[in-house]
Fold:
Amino acid sequence: MLRIRVIPFHLLLIFLPLSAAPAESPAYRFQTYSVEQGMSSAEIYTVLQDRTGFLWIGTTNGLHRFDGYSFTVFRNVPFDSTSLSANFIFHLCEGRE
Structure:
């Protein structure tokens, strides 16, 4: 049986390079994000960075897209066939398009 480990979001660190420093001495800035900064859930199941740079975060309360500044949350809307089919996002995979 596959066991999925839930990582509390406040423990997940997202890092961004501060400058174009040489490879032997990289400079990083670490930032944490939580419900106060726009997340709808602290339970994260999966994270994916797409080829355009967006960070996609699957939680128990929808799919979050992070652009480096703010979160956009996608959720199931009952009777809306264009919304997510469920709010529990366990896996993410980037398609070719």
